[in-house]
Design goal:
single chain, 145 residues, alpha+beta, Arc Repressor Mutant, subunit A, two-stranded antiparallel sheet, 5 helices, 44% helix, globular, transcription regulation, DNA binding, transcription, HTH_HxlR, Transcriptional regulator
Length: 145
């Protein structure tokens, strides 16, 4: 048996369903978030979790941000992503390529020239990460950009 719960918290509304006495799918509703945003089925939740884990994996977001800041060559990524080892950078670039967020372009010159570019999907993910960066600044008391 499931019932809908609406609770008011400092002017916001929390909505969720009660299953066996516990509230599931709670969220804070506001004017910028539609109800359909949080009406996720099990498959959508699974895909969301996979996406969050990919973006949240150590160094992945920093590598994507470096690409958005203009990095193209391996050495440019290494310079912009401070503290990452060459081995781990190579592994993350390969993973991001496999996920379709970065494309690897090999030019058959002497020596071989390899560049990495964000795909449209990678650029879209970057645009989705920006609000998270803004939110984290607010939580950490850092001034807005």
């Amino acid at each position: 048996m499931s019932q809908t719960v609406n609770r008011s918290v400092e002017g916001s509304v929390l909505k969720g369903s009660v299953l066996n006495g516990s509230v599931a799918n709670d969220r804070v509703a506001n004017d910028s978030v539609s109800d359909s945003t949080f009406a996720l089925d099990e498959e959508e939740c699974r895909r969301f979790q996979i996406s969050v884990e990919l973006a949240g994996r150590k160094w992945s977001a920093a590598i994507l941000m470096a690409g958005a800041r203009g990095a193209r060559r391996f050495s440019e990524y290494r310079a912009l992503v401070e503290g990452i080892s060459d081995r781990l950078l190579a592994a993350r670039l390969k993973e991001l390529e496999q996920e379709g967020l970065i494309e690897r372009d090999v030019q058959p010159t002497t020596p071989v020239s390899i560049s990495y570019n964000l795909t449209p999907s990678g650029l879209q993910l970057i645009s989705l990460l920006h609000p998270l960066v803004t939110w984290s600044r607010t939580r950490q008391g850092v001034g807005a950009p």
